[in-house]
């Protein structure tokens, strides 16, 4: 494959730091480094200088924080998408947007190939490449981890040292970090042993719950059509709302998760995650949904939540099924508006009150006290009809003999 100019999804981390000189040496092509600002706490000017010093002819930094939260994070939040019931999909949600930015820059700068730094063992290679094929199927893909002779992160560190490229990873601290507005994740290195607890000095956005404030804090989240719009009475842009909650909830140690997950490629991996804002918002929205969604719609939404999470995790953001789920959620959550108050305390996040102009909760129906709207005599007929299948089965089984047990198979001689 002869490539003239490649657009590289660039972060300034270990993998992408060594890819720029590798692409120039092995493919003889120019490199345009593309950085999507999805909320990582990087010095972007320094990242740009590093990309140029490493040999890139250009480095584009594109701020997509608002798009990330409003068009990717909040729809997944509304869907209740939590992979394997625990992971709030911070990395998985960012990848299709980063790929979109990369494709847009590639087309603007006349690139004839796309490159990424994902390993052949991980999920991100799938997420990037499925997005590339949805958005720019005509551009070939270069995945150095599937081509080069570097076999480990230690090899990469040595390669970077030979080329005079500083990297934020050392042999003494080899775990990798991925960060955006929705989460900070850690994997690799010392974390590859599930029996080893993560070091406390690793965490960047949450306090140790044991060291969190001794007094609980109350906060109120406001939602409109299933999307968060305000905190404590202040309406905020999506990216500011999430960033503010990260600080507030992180100070109380809310949002840590240490788990072993099933990767798409078939292996298990251990990851440690910090998602303070996501933990608060998911808790609050679930509580508001219990107040405003009718039973059948609520239960059906619960059935699609894990499927939606699987689609995102497996790189299928650009799939008709995910789009169809969102169409359903647009309708189902038209009435999911209101306020939820939560209590944060030493790593816990609990909803303590909820209100909505569209509440389906009727005190006169639910009360155990006297009421004038519910005739309890009606329950007898309901119970008789609801029990009809059970009564029929019981009657048949009483009137007929039990079926003979299945005979044991005769062993052949």
Question: How do the strands and helices of this protein lay out in sequence?
Answer:
Blueprint: E1 5-9, H1 14-27, E2 30-37, H2 44-53, E3 58-63, H3 65-78, H4 90-108, E4 113-115, H5 124-135, E5 141-142, H6 153-162, E6 176-179, E7 184-187, E8 217-224, E9 227-231, E10 234-235, H7 238-250, E11 256-262, E12 268-274, H8 276-292, H9 295-313, H10 320-332, E13 338-345, E14 348-355, H11 363-366, H12 378-386, H13 388-399
Parallel strand pairs: 1-2, 1-4, 2-3, 4-5
Antiparallel strand pairs: 6-7, 7-12, 8-9, 8-13, 9-10, 11-12, 13-14
- Quote the distance from N terminus to C terminus: 62 Å
Order of helices and strands: EHEHEHHEHEHEEEEEHEEHHHEEHHH
DSSP helix fraction: 40-55%
Number of strands: 14
Largest sheet: 5 strands, parallel
By CATH reckoning, the class of the largest domain would read Alpha Beta
Work out the strand percent. 15-25%
Shape: globular
Radius of gyration over all CA atoms, rounded:
26 Å
Domains, number = 2
At CATH level 3, the topology of the largest domain is: Argininosuccinate synthetase, chain A, domain 2
In CATH terms, what is the architecture of the largest domain?
A: Alpha-Beta Complex
Strand order of the largest sheet: 3-2-1-4-5
Mean model confidence by pLDDT? 92
Low-confidence stretches: none
Quick recap:
By secondary structure, this protein is α/β, with parallel strands linked by helices. 40% of the residues lie in helices and 19% in strands. The chain folds into 2 domains: 5-171, Rossmann fold, CATH 3.40.50.620; 179-355, Argininosuccinate synthetase, chain A, domain 2.
């Amino acid at each position: 494959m002869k490539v003239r100019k490649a657009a590289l999804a660039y972060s300034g981390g270990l993998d992408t730091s060594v890819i720029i000189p590798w692409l120039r040496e092995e493919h003889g092509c120019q490199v345009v480094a593309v950085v999507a600002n999805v909320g990582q706490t990087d010095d972007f000017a320094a990242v740009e200088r590093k990309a140029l010093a490493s040999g890139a002819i250009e480095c584009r930094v594109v701020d997509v924080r608002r798009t990330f939260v409003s068009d990717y994070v909040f729809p997944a939040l509304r869907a209740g998408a939590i992979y394997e019931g625990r992971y709030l999909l911070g990395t998985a949600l960012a990848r299709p947007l980063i790929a979109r930015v990369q494709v847009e820059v590639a087309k603007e700068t006349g690139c004839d190939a796309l490159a990424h730094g994902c390993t052949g063992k991980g999920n991100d290679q799938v997420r990037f490449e499925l997005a590339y094929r949805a958005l720019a199927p005509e551009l070939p893909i270069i995945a150095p981890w599937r081509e080069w002779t570097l076999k480990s992160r230690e090899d990469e560190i040595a390669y970077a040292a030979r080329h005079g490229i500083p990297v934020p990873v050392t042999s003494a601290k080899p775990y990798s970090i991925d960060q955006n507005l929705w989460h900070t994740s850690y994997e690799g290195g010392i974390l590859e042993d599930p029996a080893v607890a993560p070091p406390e000095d690793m965490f960047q956005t949450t306090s140790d719950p044991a060291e969190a404030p001794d007094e609980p804090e109350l906060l109120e989240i406001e939602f409109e059509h299933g999307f968060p719009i305000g905190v404590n009475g202040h309406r905020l842009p999506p990216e500011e709302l999430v960033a503010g909650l990260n600080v507030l909830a992180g100070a109380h140690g809310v949002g840590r998760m240490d788990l072993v997950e099933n990767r798409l490629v078939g292996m298990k991996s251990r990851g440690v995650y910090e998602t303070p804002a996501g933990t608060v918002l998911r808790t609050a929205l679930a509580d508001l949904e219990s107040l405003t969604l009718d039973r059948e719609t609520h239960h059906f939404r619960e059935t699609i939540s894990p499927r939606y999470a699987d689609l995102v995790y497996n790189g299928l953001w650009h799939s008709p099924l995910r789009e169809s789920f969102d169409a359903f959620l647009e309708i189902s959550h038209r009435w999911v508006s209101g306020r939820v108050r939560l209590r944060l305390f030493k790593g816990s996040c609990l909803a303590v009150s909820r209100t909505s102009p569209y509440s389906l909760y009727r005190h006169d129906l639910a009360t155990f006290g006297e009421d004038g709207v519910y005739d309890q005599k009606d329950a007898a007929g309901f119970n008789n009809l609801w029990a009809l299948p059970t009564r029929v089965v019981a009657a048949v089984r009483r009137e007929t003999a039990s079926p003979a047990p299945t005979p044991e198979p005769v062993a052949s001689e």
